[in-house]
């Protein structure tokens, strides 16, 4: 017997009935993105490794530890399974000159890949929803994206999600803060763990995001970037806040919020819950005005966010309970193989009219008794059974039986024109 193969650890199958909730979520996303006038973009799963080294940041955890990178055996090119999609969107925008005629509102969804220890809410292959606004420098774009994420989570029915935000200011402001931060941490070098010591002179902002309990008090007292912001950066942040207030989106300032990627400037934000343990960030993003130049494009303002769909669905399951997948409108009972041609022709006509119909599977002896077929019809959740018995077919009709009215009422319908009575099945 051949060896049994399993999925790669941390890369999960999504099976029925769970996949029905994914489809429901995706429908919600498409509808909302259309109402906000965002257009869909689809980029490759595999990109040049240098895209993420330059775009995500050489000293980030993603690039240093988590990327799935490999050499193309045909031409030796260094390639990577995308760990996130903002650099890919910017690469596509530069390559195809997307913003030549003005700004763009874009959204995407798809699998991302990070080689890390799988745990609740954190997988090696995970699905991310993202939204990006390219070409608009004003704080209204930041606010619009945050309102978009807030609206989605609200329409999904999620509760107890808070919005935290901060400003990373402009490069000169960050440099001044960085110098103060390095000097402060050097004064407390004895409290720094190995990871913090490694980051001290490469990416000291990331030390502020430490989860080490022994460092929390020292980090809380570190210089805050907000104290180094100039008037322009302060006005940008204050305008974002006032626009969120106008839209009824509650927010709090988190001066330690720095995000994990090098390309952010000005506004950064996260949508956070306490109901998923350590993996409580549902959505995060911010402004990244310098990324186009880093990737070889013209200076272009941009802002975006990414949302982990597994975490959203996990919170939905915790707050809303089990998800009932949509049931078919009708279930076709086919007692004998001879009835299959008429049954399948009729079902196709009904499906063309918008009716969802499940046909009993099997032929010959495998079709099962009428009793067993009715059991499966009832278990399907369908409201009606369509019975294609020999007597019905001889008279050019089928029996329509109610499965949900408690009385099992039944009547006849003509096989010659299914679309004439299809609307009854939709009610």
Shape: elongated
What distance separates the N and C termini? 51 Å
Q: List how many beta strands DSSP finds.
A: 16
Sheet-strand content, in percent, reads 15-25%
Largest sheet: 8 strands, mixed
Domain tally? 2
Going by helix content, strand content and strand pairing, the class is alpha+beta
With helices defined by DSSP (H or I, 4 residues minimum), what is the helix count? 15
Provide the CATH superfamily of the largest domain: Bira Bifunctional Protein, Domain 2
EC number: 6.1.1.21
Main location: cytoplasm
Subunit structure: Homodimer.
Organism: Ramlibacter aquaticus
Entry keywords:
single chain, 427 residues, BirA Bifunctional Protein, domain 2, Rossmann fold, 2 domains, 8-stranded mixed beta sheet, 5-stranded mixed beta sheet, 20% strand
Provide a compact summary of the structure:
By secondary structure, the chain is α+β, with helices and mostly antiparallel strands. It has 15 helices and 16 strands.
């Amino acid at each position: 017997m051949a060896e049994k193969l399993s999925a790669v650890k941390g890369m999960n199958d999504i099976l029925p009935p769970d996949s029905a909730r994914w489809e429901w979520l995706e429908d919600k996303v498409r509808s909302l993105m259309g109402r906000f006038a965002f257009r869909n973009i689809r980029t490759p799963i595999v990109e040049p490794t240098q895209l993420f080294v330059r775009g995500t940041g050489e000293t980030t955890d993603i690039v240093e530890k988590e990327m799935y990178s490999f050499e193309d055996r045909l031409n030796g090119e260094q390639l990577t399974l995308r760990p996130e999609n903002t650099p890919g969107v910017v690469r596509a925008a530069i390559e195809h000159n997307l913003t030549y005629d003005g700004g763009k509102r874009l959204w995407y969804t798809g699998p991302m890949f990070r080689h890390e220890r799988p745990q609740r809410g954190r997988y090696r292959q995970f699905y991310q929803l993202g939204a990006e606004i390219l070409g608009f420098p004003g704080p209204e774009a930041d606010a619009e994206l945050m309102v978009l994420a807030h609206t989605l989570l609200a329409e999904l029915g999620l509760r107890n999600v808070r919005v935290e935000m901060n400003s990373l200011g402009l490069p000169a402001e960050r440099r001044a803060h960085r110098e103060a931060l390095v000097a402060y941490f050097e004064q407390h070098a004895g409290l720094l763990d190995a990871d913090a010591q490694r980051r001290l002179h490469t990416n000291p902002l990331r030390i502020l995001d430490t989860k080490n309990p022994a460092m929390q008090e020292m980090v809380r007292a570190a210089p805050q970037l907000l104290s180094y912001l100039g008037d322009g950066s302060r006005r940008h942040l204050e305008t974002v806040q006032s626009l969120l207030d106008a839209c009824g989106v509650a927010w709090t300032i988190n001066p330690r919020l720095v995000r994990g990627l090098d390309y952010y400037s000005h506004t950064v934000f996260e949508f956070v819950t306490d109901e998923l343990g350590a993996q409580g960030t549902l959505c995060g993003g911010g402004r990244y005005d310098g990324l186009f130049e880093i990737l070889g494009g013209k200076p272009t303002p941009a802002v975006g966010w990414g949302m982990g769909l597994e975490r959203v669905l996990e919170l939905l399951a915790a707050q809303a309970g089990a998800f009932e997948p949509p049931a078919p409108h009708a279930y076709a009972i086919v007692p004998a193989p001879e009835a299959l041609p008429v049954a399948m022709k009729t079902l196709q006509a009904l499906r063309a009219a918008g009716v969802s119909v499940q046909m009993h599977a099997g032929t010959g002896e495998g079709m099962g008794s009428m009793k067993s077929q009715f059991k499966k019809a009832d278990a399907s959740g369908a409201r009606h059974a369509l019975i294609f018995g020999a007597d019905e077919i001889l008279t050019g009709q089928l029996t329509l039986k109610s499965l949900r009215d408690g009385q099992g009422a039944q009547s006849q319908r003509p096989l010659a024109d299914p679309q004439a009575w299809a609307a009854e099945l939709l009610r």
